[in-house]
Amino acid sequence: MGTDNLHISPRTGDPVTDIGLDTISTEKQALVFVNTKRSAEACADRLADAVKKHLPIATRHSLSDKVRNVLSSPTKQCNRLADAVTHQVAFHHSGLHSEQRSSVEEAFKDGKIQVIAATPTLAAGLDMPAFRVVIRDLKRYSGGWGMQPIPVLEYEQMSGRAGRPGYDDEGQAITIAETASEKEDIQEQYVAADPEPIQSKLAARPTLRTYTLSLVATGFVSDDDELTGFMDETFYAHQYGDDEKLHSQLHMVKDNLRNWNMIESQMDTSEEPVFVSAKEYSQSDELDATRLGHRVSELYLDPYTANKLVHRLRAAGESPDPFAVLLAISYTLEMRPLIRVKKGDSQAVEARLWKHEDNLLHDAPDQYEDDYKEFLNAVKTAAVLHDWINEVSEQELDERWGVTPGHLQAKRSLADWLLYSCDEILDVIDAPDIQRMIRRLRERVNLGVKDDLLALTKFDGIGRVRARRLYKADIQDAGDVKDTAFEKVQDILGPKTGKQLKKQVGQTVDTETVKRETHGNLLDFKD
User: Looking at the DSSP assignment, which residues form a beta bridge with residue 135?
Assistant: First the structure.
């Protein structure tokens, strides 16, 4: 373990925990990179327990309370993070709520947290250097390929976090080797290795479609000659190394965009073969984006996704099943990676599909088709969102589906974008009836409420929990808020929030004149 000048006292039997203890005891900071969210949490737990046992350090109760109470009802994960933070340790991954991730990052920068156990996403795009970086896992699960070595470029991205300019004269990047042979392999495969060649993202068909439409929609190219000329100068063309095949790829993409009513051109290719040679391919055809093409480009949607949504929304009728709409947006490239079906919930996922199968906006693939498994992942993703808009709590979603608050927040954000895109597409194709339903569904995804609470959640400070309390007390809209005595409102919400709510409907309450006989303080409930 380590280098010739690195000596760590063994205390716990776990090298990573020992390195963490040494880092904290010397008042330095470290980032520990592991390959899964579960490993990050377990690593932080072990180190926090070791700190409690071996190092008498000051606790961080205010920070602990902050990360614990991000949600109205803390989940097991919230409590786990809060307990670790108390010992100046934290974990960080995409499953955390964004406010928790931000709190951890800021506390690390301020020196309030000394060790973070994280997945590699922390190494990309965030300015978070540390004295030490521990790269525990050099392999990661890769679908059907099993555990595969991480790229050299990723190793360099993580190890490059070691050494804080202006704070440390050196940085230590540490990997863990159990044998001398393994140490030699790490030295050869990572420390002394060159990073992999960079690959152009235009090689991916969705990116090529999106980029081509963008070039036409912005007027950057106006005909085939300009389009192929531009592409011939890209890094993608340099990598592709075959102009004729590249032009054929562009021809297919342009044909798709025309068939999807996103670009217009003078040349009718309805009877052209799919593959044409560069000599046969005309470079004089003028190109222009349609109204739909312009809007799709502005939304940064894959044109393929937009075309699918157009057809599904047109077939939806005036009052589609909300679950069916959520499934339609979940079964897109933009929503990936989807929430994966696990053995323990496969029956529940299929049961949810059977419950709504008569209302779907598109046919489900046959269970023996290759994409059926991914379709079920989309069903589970839609089921999670559907439960959320029916006021299932974050804790119950975690217990029912294994979805953490951060994962839910990420999918809600994508669903918001895709529902907004549906709204904009419907505006172009002129379908106002379903458009109203889509807008309400988007609000429900943002707020996590049933349809009957939308009027109440428009008030500042009234979220899903407070709104449901008011609704159960027969206060269902602004008129009811006005007509209800302040004493009743404050019984439900507490005096501070009750006063704020009354103010929003134009009523001023002098709480000093509201005298109530009570032996305790009125609580102000949190959403």
Answer: 33, 175
Strands 263-265 and 287-289: antiparallel
Cα angle value 118/124/127 (rounded, 5°): 90
Peptide bond into 337 cis (omega under 30): yes
Residue type, position 511, single letter = T
Are 333 and 304 in contact by the 8 Å Cβ rule? The answer is yes
Nearest to 174 by CA among 148, 194, 155: 155
Neighbouring residues of 27: CB distance < 8 A, sequence distance ≥ 6: 114
**DSSP 8-state secondary structure symbol assigned to residue 331:** S
| Residue-by-residue DSSP string for 380-412 | HHHHHHHHHHTT--HHHHHHHH---HHHHHHHH
Give CA angle at 105 (104, 111), nearest 5°: 85
Q: Residue 273 CB: number of other CB atoms within 10 A?
A: 9
pLDDT in tens, 308-358: 999 999 888 888 999 999 999 999 999 999 999 998 999 999 999 999 999
3-state helix, strand, coil in the chain (%, to 5): 55, 5, 40
- In 286-343, alpha helices (H): 291-298, 303-314, 322-330
| 524's tokens | 């102000």
3-class secondary structure, 240: helix
Which parts of the chain have pLDDT scores under 70?
1-5, 58, 60, 125, 143-144, 266-284, 511-527
Q: What are phi and psi of 197, to 5 degrees?
A: -60, 145
Distance CA 94, CA 66 (A): 18
- Residue 521 has what pLDDT? 47
**CA 384 to chain centroid:** 14
The single-letter code of the amino acid at 260 is W
Kind plus residue range of the DSSP H or E element containing 135: strand 132-135
Q: Which two tokens stand for residue 17?
A: 């925990």
Calpha distance 70→100 (Å, rounded): 7
Instruction: Quote the pTM value.
Output: 0.82
Give the closest residue to 158 by CA, choosing from 142, 134, 177, 182. Answer: 134
